[in-house]
Design goal:
about 325 residues; alpha/beta; 8-stranded mixed beta sheet; 14 strands; about 35% helix
């Protein structure tokens, strides 16, 4: 099964200030703020929702097609993704803007000052999926992950016109999308991904009840944090999959993207929805215990142990044949 992942590709610049921002704010001068904080550390991490999902699927040997827009500064990042099994030949390179960038400084009490620069991501709306399908061969699924809003709408429309099944994953962009746009994104996807808050927000945006949403989507996957995942289909009892055991969280950023990578891998291997979600949850815990969204390494032995501990020997046995690529 060949999957294309459309969405954001970004670089995160994360800094730490050892003091407290609030100690440097003068109450009667808040209309004229001009501050500079000397950071002790800087971490530059590769990120972006589409790139994170593709990275996870690439490690599992699935050669996902990454579709998004970047700047001329993407060269090193592109090499990294290719080394990890991602097809980047359909990524649009801007001649005008740099790759999207998230710059964030965190102080000693976890207050944050951050700026997100969309940059080249705004050009993702120029990407048509027909040439991607022609180049990559038959596409069995296209994931519409958070991106430039116009790009998300265009890619959804392209999938309908080309007859390609798609997954809707509006997540962070729900705050930017109006009700009509969200309704267009939810018109007939094979899968819908959300977390609990996003599930409530998309109902508010569309004016639809949960039942009405389920009438329009094939399968609705809702991540529940430490409680695991809920999978729903119209007219069927929900499937509840608990979270995989973990030694303790280190950094939650990218955990949802890792779950999607594992779930989509299971779907690609024609596994059941439950088994696909179990694999997604197991990979999510690997990322939860790591720092950075693409700094982890998957191993068959580790994943199988997590599957046995969380879901029993039958789960590990069924997935073992698919995880040999990691051995």
């Amino acid at each position: 099964m060949r999957t294309a992942i459309t969405g954001s590709i970004a670089t995160d610049h994360l800094m730490v200030f050892p003091g407290r921002f609030t100690d440097h704010l003068v109450a009667d001068q808040l209309k004229n703020v001009s501050l500079s904080f000397l950071a002790d550390t800087l971490e530059v991490r590769r990120g972006g929702v589409a790139a994170n999902i593709a990275f996870g699927m690439g490690q599992l040997g699935l050669a996902p097609v990454l579709v998004g827009a970047v700047g001329p500064d993407f060269a090193d990042y592109q090499v990294w993704l290719k080394q990890h099994g991602v097809d980047t030949d359909s990524v649009h390179v801007s001649h005008e803007h740099q790759t999207a960038r998230f710059v964030c400084t965190t102080d000693s009490v976890q207050n944050q000052i951050a700026t997100f620069y969309a940059g080249a991501m705004s050009e993702a709306r120029r990407i048509a999926l027909a040439p991607v399908a022609d180049r990559a061969g038959t596409l069995d699924l296209v994931v519409i992950a958070p991106n430039d809003p116009e790009a998300m709408l265009r890619h959804t429309a392209d999938c309908r016109e080309l007859g390609i099944p798609f997954a809707a994953d509006p997540s962070q962009q729900l705050a930017r999308l109006d009700g009509e746009s969200v309704r267009r994104l939810l018109d007939g996807p094979r899968f819908l991904f959300s977390n609990e808050y996003e599930a409530a927000l998309l109902q508010e945006r569309t004016g639809w009840s949960a039942e009405q949403v389920l009438q329009r989507v094939g399968t609705w996957i809702t991540t529940l944090g430490a409680q695991g995942v809920r999978i729903e289909r119209a007219g069927e009892a929900p499937i509840l999959v608990p979270a995989a055991p973990t030694t303790g969280p280190t950094e939650p950023t990218g955990v949802g993207d890792a779950f999607r990578a594992g779930f989509l891998a299971g779907v690609s291997w024609n596994l059941s929805l439950r088994r696909s979600a179990e694999l997604g949850c197991a990979i999510a815990t690997v990322v939860l215990e790591s720092v950075g969204t693409q700094e982890y390494v998957l191993s068959a032995a580790d994943l199988l142990e997590r599957l046995r501990a969380g879901y029993g020997p039958a789960s590990a046995a069924e997935l073992a044949t698919h995880l040999v690529v990691l051995s």
